[in-house]
């Protein structure tokens, strides 16, 4: 019997790094990183040795969160008035939304989900424009290239692949771009999540993946999504660092996301950040959250509100006073009034536009459907 020839050992150039030297540095902290506690005081918990963001950044973040909370509340009212078809509120998650946008520069891109409307507004998108899709228009409502903000994606995790692709293209072209890709805990169960993270890690794409772990994927709790010790721990499997952060502490979020942005700009590749927060309201206005969780489960998170925490912290440091709070409230009300006025306007809609941008060259089936719709509209008009 001829003995088998031993396989050649991998060369040092192709050998994988050992667990001891590499993987341990990728693991997240045992507890989420926190710089400001729920009462607004400097935290004594895990800080990740990260510095406190500067005063201007903290004040700006607070302003954007207050505006974002008013945006959420006004959008919910517009649904109840029948002016929006649906709205997925990020009430209670404003710190994640704001931090994701604030760490990006003028050349960087954001890839949000359907719940990340406040992040899009923080990128400069007009509040009315961001709601047009939810009011029934066929398009995203704004020019993604103008604001470097991709459309608010409804399919779970598809935007993560797009974000990794844009980041890879920027790297190939030598452009100084960082991309933030947002998703929820439910999206981590999708195949696109795996594909995006694996691709980004292999090719060291300058992208930050931010998971807003708000405990529920519609009615499915996190315990039914994964058996991993944390979602951030999934990063080690792809060869990228994972970070856990208090998702209601905007100071910690700015620090953690800023560190990841710096890492991406150095060419060191992607980071997976998991922000621990909570979905205070129902999945959308069409969801009855009382069917799968009790008011007692929600109540503890009220005390962890990111805006209350930020205001207490800024007041304690003399960075916010009653006059500034009143001025900010007035600005938020003015924005809400503009939202009501903008969504209430009659828009000149052309149903034929539904077919104009599906394919560069329309298919026979698409042309047939277009003709059928126009014929139905013409017959309806003739009966008036």
Give a structural overview.
Mean pLDDT is 93; it is low at 5-13. It contains 13 helices and seven strands. Helix 1 runs parallel beside helix 12 (322-344). The chain has helices at residues 55-80, 94-102, 117-122, 127-131, 144-147, 158-173, 191-202, 235-238, 250-265, 295-302, 306-316, 322-344, 364-382, and strands spanning 109-111, 179-184, 207-213, 216-217, 220-221, 242-246, 271-276. It is globular, with a radius of gyration of 23 Å. It has a five-stranded parallel beta sheet with strand order 1-2-3-7-6, sandwiched between helices. Strand 6 (242-246), helix 9 (250-265) and strand 7 form a beta-alpha-beta unit. The protein has 384 residues and is α/β, with parallel strands linked by helices.
